[in-house]
Description:
By secondary structure, the protein is an alpha/beta fold. Helix content is 37%, strand content 22%.
Amino acid sequence: xxxxxxxxxxxxxxxxxxxxxxxxxxxxxxxxxxxxxxxxxxxxxxxxxxxxxxxxxxxxxxxxxxxxxxxxxxxxxxxxxxxxxxxxxxxxxxxxxxxxxxxxxxxxxxxxxxxxxxxxxxxxxxxxxxxxxxxxxxxxxxxxxxxxxxxxxxxxxxxxxxxxxxxxxxxxxxxxxxxxxxxxxxxxxxxxxxxxxxxxxxxxxxxxxxxxxxxxxxxxxxxxxxxxxxxxxxxxxxxxxxxxxxxxxxxxxxxxxxxxxxxxxxxxxxxxx
Length: 273
């Protein structure tokens, strides 16, 4: 059914701002109707009733379209995996700058989800070996599809509960975007996240919010190479506590802000930074 841009905006008015509705309209018109981006703004009506209904129910645009952009690549996403965030790309860019003269790296990605970090690093460091862990078989199925579609054949996907069993071997880089949201922070999250994205990839116990970082830090002590580094995305309200945890295990540590000015990443090194 053909719907107008005005009707589309009215359908989504309780969920998105006027500016966000405009962005979504242009994106949907481009992807669903095949309109060139430069012309999408001028389209006043389109046959997008099914997509509009799903968006109006609160379903994220990435799940509706079936993909998310990450590091200039399209990653398939659905309800089995978290939607890659814009700020998460920054950890990949940071690693690219830090290791731009290296290639044959041994990289471990803990909690890979859609595989966006692991696959991006595998493509960036094409001669490296990337091991990507996740507890969810469903998430790994999505990640494997993404690796195949993007030609990242240097990634090994492993189903494992990192809190209970650790992979063997030594690594030059350990990277992770683990669950870090406390239940008390639910009120800060939009319904389109809470209602659709997998909670086991989002939340940690209220009384032990750094559980994954403790495990990663301890694991790195025995499984990082002599010049190895850890890169993790963190809860922006727990930056100093998370940094202290890594420092206590002997790492030199930096807390890094994302492009929104939030404390978002920790870079921990066995050597002085």
